[in-house]
Fold this sequence. Notes:
Blueprint: H1 3-9, H2 23-34, E1 46-50, H3 53-60, H4 68-72, E2 75-82, H5 87-110, E3 114-118, H6 123-130, E4 136-145, H7 163-166
Antiparallel strand pairs: 1-2, 2-4, 3-4
Amino acid sequence: METWDAIRARRNVRQYTGQPVAREDLERICEAGRRAPSAGNGQPWSFVVVTDRAQLVELAKAWERGGRHIASSAATIALVGKEPDGERQRELLMYDFGQATANMMLAAADLGIGSGHSAVGDQQQAQRALGFPDGYLAFFLIGLGYPADRPLRPLARPDRRPFGEVVHWGRW
């Protein structure tokens, strides 16, 4: 898929077929995250790739409100980093992790793999499920799998605010 097509095809997918995602595709998605820009080129992330069903079910408990799709995903990538020292560092980390997340979700769309992001509410549950060391946090989860409803393809009419309402030229 071309980049523009991947951007137009990407949507949140939270219902997946039972088809596994190939390891080389998971590696490519992680590489897209690894190559994301970050403040001062700090690259503050580590990625934990989970494909074991029992582990995915446990990981989904880290955000039961919005992460239920994690349990049924073919794979989930947890974005983990050191706990920030202050508010400014937290802001930079959130921006950096957001860029890595977007890169990974676009790379998945390029491969025809659906993705759905999730926050992490229960850090202790995430740590139990993932085994990351003290002093680290799981910032986000990206559930991955082949869409159960329809394949990814560029959307002609996305559910988005009108272009003219969003884009301002020169001044607001």
